[in-house]
Amino acid sequence: MEYKLYRKATGYDAGKLLAIIGEHASKVIDKFEVYTIANGSTLELKVYKDEEIKINSDGRPLWSEITWISNKWELLETDVNLQDVVDGLRNSNFAQSFSELTKYFTND
Fold this sequence. Notes:
Number of helices: 3
Shape: globular
Helix content: 10-25%
Strand content: 25-35%
């Protein structure tokens, strides 16, 4: 699985929403993973896998909105180990890697 980090670039939540996309080597959509992290009044993590990643509220695939519509989402270079973030609490580096993602939010 290859993981990439994106930040919402337009809309009311621009700069306050991150997405980690896990692209499976097989390119089978059901094996992709999407993790969204919102920086609102609290930090909120949502996980989308299998059927859940196919359609979002706009009627288009969630993963394609993030990876294919470049003006809405910005691909970020990161030194954070995204695999650690995705592995979550099973990994001793999770808390540090997850907390380091907050520097990618903007405050505009």
